[in-house]
Write a structure and sequence with these properties.
Layout lengths: L1 H11 L3 H9 L4 H18 L1 H34 L9 H10 L16 H23 L5 H32 L1
Helix pairs in contact: 2-5, 2-6, 3-4, 3-5, 4-5, 4-7, 5-6, 6-7
């Protein structure tokens, strides 16, 4: 457990060597998944006044699905469409590194603080994005941080369109019931 906690702290500190370590550690998938689960639960607790207990449950499920989809998009965009000559990666490496980039998301539990919570959630979200850029750069063996930023932005746009479509389809269907 100490190793897991230490890894989460190092990931939140944006320790580049941590992302290289979990990229190479094929046994770290469970830990990466646990980081995503804890981050999702923290976000649900931080937003409990609006989402209730079901918000925590659905938020955790969506965090896991989003993590998997995000890693796949990042792999496809970064390793297949926009690779550098040194890029050698697989989907599992991105799942591990991106999972650990969710470590700062634990701070989203502070969303429960009236008046300050929204700001702290925003800070944690930006921190997670920065960690993800580092994770992508390391997992895809990029020399350019800007390429990692571009891959993350392209993936985010695609994911947002997908989420918007799901909400439009299923949200509209739910409203008709």
């Amino acid at each position: 457990m100490a190793d897991f906690t230490n890894r989460m702290i190092r990931a939140a500190k944006l320790d580049v060597s941590l992302y290289e370590e979990v990229e190479a550690d094929k046994t770290a998938m469970g830990q990466a998944m646990m980081v995503v689960i804890l981050s999702g639960i923290a976000a649900g607790v931080g937003n409990i006044s609006r989402g209730g207990v079901m918000g925590i449950i659905w938020g955790t499920i969506l965090a896991l699905v989003g993590w998997y989809v995000w890693a796949f998009l990042t792999y496809f965009i970064g390793a297949k469409l926009l690779p550098e000559p040194e890029t050698k990666a697989n989907h599992q490496e991105l799942l591990r590194t991106i999972g650990f980039s969710s470590s700062p998301g634990i701070l989203r539990v502070l969303g429960i603080i009236p008046g300050l919570g929204s700001f702290l959630v925003f800070v944690a979200s930006v921190w997670m994005l920065i960690a993800m850029i580092i994770a992508v750069k390391q997992a895809l063996d990029y020399s350019s941080t800007w390429r990692a930023v571009g891959v993350c932005i392209i993936g985010w746009i695609i994911q947002m369109i997908f989420v918007w479509l799901l909400v439009a389809i299923f949200g509209g269907a739910q409203a008709q019931l």
